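[#protein-structures] MJ: dropping Charged multivesicular body protein 3 here for a structure pass
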Amino acid sequence: KSLFSSTPVNEWSLKMRKEMRVIDRQIRDIQREEEKVKRSVKDAAKKGQKDVCVVLAKEMIRSRKAVSKLYASKAHMNSVLMGMKNQLAVLRVAGSLQKSTEVMKAMQNLVKIPEIQATMRELSKEMMKAGIIEEMLEDTFENMEDQEEMEEEAEMEIDKILFEITAGALGKAPSKVTDALPETEPIGAAGIADEEEEEDIEAMQSRLATLRISTSCKLLLCLSSLKVSLLSCALLYCSRGRCQGA
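AK: finished. structure tokens for Charged multivesicular body protein 3:
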């Protein structure tokens, strides 16, 4: 009993499951942000801002790579949980814990995940004291290698992502937009109409729909004010013309 109480395997398992929930929240947050980026890509493509689309596509590649790593982390966590179950079985039979290469490999990967790094390091130290794993050396160059790999992947996948989001229509957009920017009123009105049609097809979430309606109302108010101003100017111009003719 004293030996079992000195090896808190159940406590480690609880901490691991808690961190798995943290990973799940991180994945959901990243995926929500990716949906926002997709909308921004579509808006930029409609305005012909291909350079903006390229930047946003790179951001999507980063987010997808992050989600992929987080899913891999969950797999490593499951490996650790299975290892903990095996350790409990060994403890009951042999009366002591044994080194586990499977747990050590999984923990080596988990201590590199920023979202759970602090907890994983703490668990690693406890496991080292219990004799389950040996001291681990962190790869300080991994982040640099991942950054270079991400840039190469971005160059290869960027066209594919843009084609996917814009349904192949991005090729019609110029690389830069200069003349379109001053004409915010006409382009904005056309963009909003197209966006509303596309959002109806995609059945966007109610929160985004509410936000879209609010934005459309503001734009309609602005356009109404602009029409009133133009009408006033026209009436003033006509009245002046009549005065001069008289």
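MJ: nice. The chain has a mean pLDDT of 69.
AK: one more thing. The chain has eight helices and no strands.
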